[in-house]
Amino acid sequence: MNFGKFVERLAQLLPVLLGVTVIVFFMMALTPGDPVEIMIGDSHVTPEQEAELRHDLGLDRPPVERFFVFLGNAVRGDFGISFYHRRPVIDVIAERLPATIELSLVALVLALATSIPLGIVAAVKKNTIFDKLATVGSLFGVSLPGFWFGILLLMLFSVHLHLLPVAGRVGYEFEVPPITHMLLIDSLLQGRFDAFANAFKHLIMPAIVLGLPMAAILTRVTRTSMLDVLSQDYMTFAEAKGLSRSRILLRHGLKNALIPTVTVAALQTGALLGGNMIVETVFGWPGLGRLVVESIFLRNYPLVQAAVLIYATTYVTLNFLADILYTILNPRVRL
Amino acid sequence: MSAVLTWVLGPVSPDESPFRRNLRMFFSSRLSTVSTLMVFGFVLLAIAAPLVAPHDPNETDLFRRLQPPAWIEGGEWSFLLGCDALGRDILSRIIYGSRISIFIGAFVIFVATTIGILAGLAAGYLRGWVDIAISRLVDILLGFPYLIFAIALIAMMGPGLQNILLALIYKEWVMPCRVVRGETLAAREVEYVEAARALGGSSRHIMLREILPNILSPVIVVATIRMAHVIILEASLSFLGLGIQPPTASWGSMVADGRSYMLEAWWVSTFPGFAILILVLAINVAGQGLRDAFDPKFHD
Q: Domain containing B149 — which CATH number?
């Protein structure tokens, strides 16, 4: 890809990120309720102490000035103090983020591992019962409310069959010293296969619920693009050369058919971020999504503000990477 | 099915408009017709809720606390789907809950689509700074994952029907706007628009009278598919406790209520969630049918 185009596309990203930051700041700045009063809570403080706290937090300055201070601090990763935890917001978020990343990655892997074979088989066996089942399945996948599906899984596999744990990341007896803070990786690195198995059992239901809508969408995308590829002249030519069906599909078909799938997968990874608030709440998963929902009820606005900004920045960056990826994979497309 | 089709759309005529032809194609699919009828069934249920609901949805009766559905021992046929933790009839609450889901889905999509159409037409037809301003705003709003944006807005404004509507509309208009802008950009170069311009038609006349009627089909398809999405979003917000507040029945909050009673009363969560699934599935199937009928790419 042309480096100049890449830089141009990157430059287009900056106003979007700035706009996102403006919206996040004013969203929270205009929220009813005085942050100082929320912080003080029931404690008895003098008006002077209250004024000092207001000054320390910069709340006595005009909103526009406060925005630039917020922006400068945000760039350095300083999002202020969590009202509830009485610690820097970034530290609280850093503790919970690995759990969310781990869950999202496993959901992504599950979605790709199911949707690609399903989509290919549905295309190859077009208009057969298998194709129709894949179509119905993907329609169900996008129509199932995640929170309800999660509760159904909990009722079946945890409450009735006692096969999987109800909540959390790992059993208390399987504590693993953190290295990457991702339990599956940490337990493998330390040879703790018992902890790995336990962490995986905790992870499997949330990952299925989170990955299902993505798998449904990717199955449709893979099917459509595979059908498109199957109708291309080079596929007929490969067949005429006498290559075997499986070789044609894997060598020529799959390589081209996966371009839209990979791009949509990158876009959908951003969408997983929104879903994890629901999934983490249903499964008591100690990640960032659940922390945000809890913080809303605690009116812990600096944390909500920081988390929304982090989510949005990640989302915009993933979309940008999806664009770049598409261009790299498909040289016919120019940015 | 074909008799119904003829009854609804009249007999086939050779000079039929493309819209009517596509509609006929839509209704010729059994799946599309059934799903459309199901959606209308839900709408009728919502409208006639006071007439069809067997009980007052908010009437509590602690003697019926967690009463099972009629076909399970301890159930009663007058409380077909059982009762929740406050002894309220689950069927009646599902029927009344459909009002919330359908009203929010329809209202948000109607307002957001209207805004999206106007903004998209202006951006695509007028170009220049109008296009730049609208497109940048669209890019910024697309930078937020939808649910997170809605949650952040509700955190700011507080829960409640009016705030949910606003929180969803604030971002939803972006989707139809993108579609309309793209279609308008293509349409403004077409002969009939150039002819209208040559005849001295004002920009407003050309946008609303010439371009809009010709680009409505993709907008209708997008609006239908998005409505399913909005209904799930509302239910998700209510499930998190950020949507419709008690005692008003909403499907999302009913599912949330049942979480505490998973061990002894599976029906409290299961039936409202099932209602969401059926309605959303019907809308999605109808949306897919509309897309297949109205998008020439799918005509083969």
A: 1.10.3720.10
